[in-house]
Design brief:
alpha/beta, 7-stranded mixed beta sheet, 6-stranded mixed beta sheet, 23 strands, disordered N terminus
């Protein structure tokens, strides 16, 4: 089959006309983006001019070309966003949940109509292959579907006659203005872990997306407005640490959700909690996949290739360590090496691409440094991703941020390439003798985000699932990201805070419970009571 490319000739991939400075004009070629535009904030229902002159270049990672500049918001921009949200909160929170759900249903309809446009934006600014970007958008849409059921999710409990003439019930009410700080690797899905649930529950939201791939945030904001969302309920402040810090200390921001690296997650958690906020901060990972001797090796190799090198390894759920039990390593390693060497790496707009570029030049340098370090530490380098350059990726890619998949064998737990999150297409293989050694190895790691075990043995699967100290477990599933009605979150240094993202825990995070006891005058006895109410 010849090389396929997306047919953009009939696709108008543009932000709606109501947005000033549209991010993307009609594509006349797969990687063409309107150059040198400014990506601003979205405040109180419209795109606004930044209040400061600070900005940052936005790149197409496949070509290395600057496609625009994103504004870097100030504390004043955050103040404006929070003020807009605070002004919108009384009416939005007082709206019946079924009416809020109707807005979510319309938003869902518009997302489904425009999901490929969102995927194009992701590929253009993040670099992940288009089919992977489509998958990201679809998983985000799942959360919107879940949030459409908010009238049911907000139902409280009622007890009749808890004491003579007294009834008791609970209800859940929104917090107020809440914020989300999201990473570059999922510019659509991760924000959708947050704002649909928060908004459907009656809160108003301020999103601070990554400045690396900011355009999807404006596209989603405009779709939400088209769906009938009142101005001020959803706001976007582009920016860097200055905007983040302003959100963390703002007295009117009641809760903050974050996804990113562990050091920043720890900072977000400590700073936000210090300022009296509810905080949900998801951090880094070092995800293992255990391959037992009885596993289907073809399936295991498929899983390791997809989970290790998909999205160039720039996923918090990527498999970065293969734990090979017993004699399975000698059989699996040659198969894995052959597949890693033949990865189809090219501009993500090509439909046959399996892996795209690294997101930035800085990230490329960091990942290269880890590969250098792995060699120095004594791991056996079987496939060297450093040899893959833009010249191999195809026409127009010479200046892009390109790297191939890297495979190490004989990695040991004392090596930094084992202990630290690389966040790139680097897979390390660790050899162990048995299941117990594999479980002990994983449980000793400081991260506990995701893990997988490939086996045909039901007892092994059950014991592994029960004994492993990791928040999300897959049995013959390499990337066990929970569905929308469950919740996403790891253990140990992969999560700071008590509640996971989305699902019912997400609803609890964005609401507070109120208990009400009620008694009417006819049932009130005579005289003062000086003791705690008891059941009578």
């Amino acid at each position: 089959m010849g090389r396929q490319t997306l047919d953009f000739n009939h696709c108008f991939v543009c932000l709606p006309a109501c947005l000033s400075n549209p991010r993307i004009a009609m594509f006349s070629s797969p990687a063409e983006i309107t150059p040198q535009i400014t990506i601003g904030h979205y405040l109180n229902g419209s795109v606004v001019t930044p209040s400061t002159g600070r900005s940052q270049d936005v790149f197409n990672p496949a070509t290395g070309a600057v496609s625009g500049q994103v504004a870097l918001g100030s504390a004043a921009d955050v103040d404006a966003a929070v003020a807009a949200a605070q002004a919108a909160f009384p009416a939005w929170s007082d709206m019946p949940p079924i009416r809020r759900a109707r807005v979510m249903f319309k938003f869902l309809e518009l997302l489904n109509k425009n999901k490929d446009q969102l995927a194009h934006l992701i590929t253009a600014e993040h670099g992940k292959v288009f089919t992977d970007a489509q998958g990201e958008v679809s998983r985000g849409i799942d959360i919107v579907e879940f949030a459409c059921g908010m009238p049911q999710l907000l139902k409280g409990d009622f007890t009749d006659q808890v004491s003579t003439g007294i009834d008791n019930w609970t209800l859940r009410q929104p917090l107020g203005v809440v914020a989300g700080i999201t990473p570059f690797n999922f510019p659509v899905m991760v924000p959708m872990w947050m704002f649909p649930v928060a908004i459907a529950a009656g809160n108003c939201f301020v999103l601070k997306p990554s400045p690396i791939d900011p355009s999807a945030s404006l596209f989603m904001a405009d779709l939400f407005k088209q769906a009938g969302l009142p101005d001020g309920v959803f706001n976007v402040v582009q920016g860097d640490k200055e905007a983040v810090d302003a959100l963390l200390v703002h007295p009117d921001v009641k809760a903050v959700s974050f996804v990113g690296s562990t050091p920043i997650a720890n900072y977000i958690y400590e700073t936000g909690a210090h300022h009296g906020k509810r905080v949900q901060a998801l951090g880094g990972a070092k995800n293992h996949m255990v391959v037992m001797p009885d596993a289907d090796l073809e399936q295991a190799v498929d899983a390791l290739i997809g989970a290790g090198y998909g999205s160039a390894g720039e996923r918090c759920m990527a498999i970065s360590v293969a734990v090979l039990v017993g004699n399975v390593a000698d059989k699996l390693i040659p198969m894995l090496k052959a597949r890693a060497e033949t990865l189809v790496i090219k501009n993500g707009v090509h439909l046959d691409a399996e892996m795209g570029p690294i997101v930035t030049g800085i990230a490329h340098k960091r990942i290269t440094g880890y590969i250098d370090l792995g060699v120095e530490e004594g791991a056996e380098l079987l496939v060297d991703g450093r040899t893959f350059t833009g010249a191999h990726a195809g026409e127009g890619c010479a200046q892009g941020f390109w790297m191939g998949g890297t495979l190490f064998d004989h990695v040991t737990p004392d090596m930094r390439i084992y202990k630290e999150e690389i966040f790139g297409p680097v897979l390390g293989c660790v050899r162990v003798n048995d299941l117990k050694e594999a479980v002990d190895l994983i449980n000793a790691h400081e991260f506990g985000n995701g893990v997988s075990c490939f086996t045909r043995d039901g007892h092994v699967a059950r014991e592994f699932s029960r004994r492993i100290q990791v928040g999300m477990v897959g049995i013959n599933v390499p990337i066990p990201v929970p569905m929308a009605w469950h919740g996403f979150g790891g253990w140990k240094k992969s999560l700071f805070g008590d509640m996971h993202a989305y699902g019912e825990e997400g609803v609890r995070f964005y609401t507070k419970q109120k208990s009400i006891m009620q008694r009417w005058p006819e049932s009130i006895g005579k005289g003062a009571e000086f003791v705690m109410p008891t059941a009578k």
